[in-house]
Amino acid sequence: MLVKWIRLTVVDRRGFERGQRKWAGLLGEPGFRGQGGGWSRSRPGVAHLVAFWESRAFYDSFMARSHDRLAAAQVGTYKDRQVRLFEHEFDVKVGFRPVFGDADVLRLAHCQVRQDRVDHFMLMQEKVWNPAMAGSPGMLRGMLGRAPGEEFLVVSMWQSAAERGKYRPERVERLALRAQIAADVRAIAGDVVQLEPSWTV
């Protein structure tokens, strides 16, 4: 499965949200599995979208045929658009599905991993982070994606902001020490996204 992550700064909120509804056109696309997104809870005006495709071939076909037509409605409504593609490596919890209807919050962690520490990083994701997140109240499902150049994205879906708040900073610090995250990761950037139901496709 291919994961597309888009981050952008919206300059015309009404126009952007109106254009966002046009993405319902993705539903007829071969290989399309789901898309959702919303607003950053810490950075005003920043929006995140995550889309899932069965394979790179289906995604490339869509980009060549239909993408520009759907995207036209949002031209001029945003700036600083960043797009990254990741291949699904494994699930956080079990049975990941690209479904957004039951989730309120999306958590994104973008990690640049040191080349000689990739195997250790992935092992720690499996043995330390996954069980901890799977056991957190309100955590529905998640997945780890990988891009070339030792780049990883952890996507997790949560039932509510209050439940995500139980994933406390001191607990995260303990887990980070256990997983030796400082030794594995060159850079890490995260965000918590308040999902907008009307953006779900």
UniProtKB/TrEMBL annotation:
Transmembrane segments: none annotated. GO terms for molecular function: monooxygenase activity. InterPro entries: Dimeric_a/b-barrel, DUF4937. The keyword Oxidoreductase applies. Keywords: Monooxygenase, Oxidoreductase. Residues 2-86 form the DUF4937 domain. It comes from the Bacteria. Coiled coil: none annotated. This is Antibiotic biosynthesis monooxygenase. It comes from Streptomyces chattanoogensis.
